[in-house]
Amino acid sequence: MPVQISPSVLASDFANLQSEIEMLNASACDYIHVDIMDGVFVPNISFGIPVTEAMHKHAQKPLDVHLMIVNPDNYLEAFAKAGASIISVHVEACNHLHRSLQAIKALGCKAGIAVNPHTPISSFEEVIQDIDLVCIMSVNPGFGGQKFIENTYDKVRRLKDLILRKNAQTLIEIDGGVNLVNAPLLMEAGADVLVAGSFVFNSSNPIKTIQELKSL
């Protein structure tokens, strides 16, 4: 299956968010990645439910919503109503991960999890068959434009092995520092979805950059 691209609007021009979403609609991207930050789970604040809802009004691609927040269960229904197609919660923020996954699916969304660089694959091995997407953080969450963590390749390989052993249908998503140099190596390791923020939105031609990633 060709790699799927999920540009992160965290790196977009917030003052022209509608035009940025319309640009992504016209591109070859598969999803629109929406990073929700609360200033508690991560040391940054991005945007929340109203802005997600506003993006959904203009988006023609599914919203891939990444909750970098504490107590995510309290907000699952609100983000589903705001237009999320995928909702990913952090393993580190969920005391009852299986319950959270089931709650997301009950809302009609695909259930994803996200894992920080230090979090081992073993932390969610028992529920891998209930997970639609695993978002591996290849930078420390909270800010865009960070340097890619090289250990990510090995982590992707180990996760791919787990998925195959368990006969799961889980997709592997990589979030942080993705570019045209490391993208082919990530795909070779087993990645299915690439999140690209600064690399797309800071380029002179974001639509061309997305196409180049898509064509790898």
UniProtKB/TrEMBL annotation:
It comes from the Bacteria. The active site is at residues 35, 175. It catalyses: D-ribulose 5-phosphate = D-xylulose 5-phosphate. One of its GO terms (molecular function) is metal ion binding. Belongs to the ribulose-phosphate 3-epimerase family. It comes from Mongoliitalea lutea. PANTHER family: RIBULOSE-5-PHOSPHATE-3-EPIMERASE. One of its GO terms (biological process) is pentose catabolic process. Catalyzes the reversible epimerization of D-ribulose 5-phosphate to D-xylulose 5-phosphate. Pathway: Carbohydrate degradation. Substrate binds at residues 8, 66, 142-145, 175-177, 197-198. GO terms for cellular component: cytoplasm. Keywords: Carbohydrate metabolism, Cobalt, Isomerase, Manganese, Metal-binding, Zinc. Its cofactor is Mn(2+); Fe(2+); a divalent metal cation; Co(2+). This is Ribulose-phosphate 3-epimerase. InterPro entries: Aldolase_TIM (IPR013785), Ribul_P_3_epim (IPR026019), Ribul_P_3_epim-like (IPR000056), RibuloseP-bd_barrel (IPR011060). Its EC number is 5.1.3.1. The keyword Acetylation does not apply. A divalent metal cation binds at residues 33, 35, 66, 175. Binds 1 divalent metal cation per subunit.
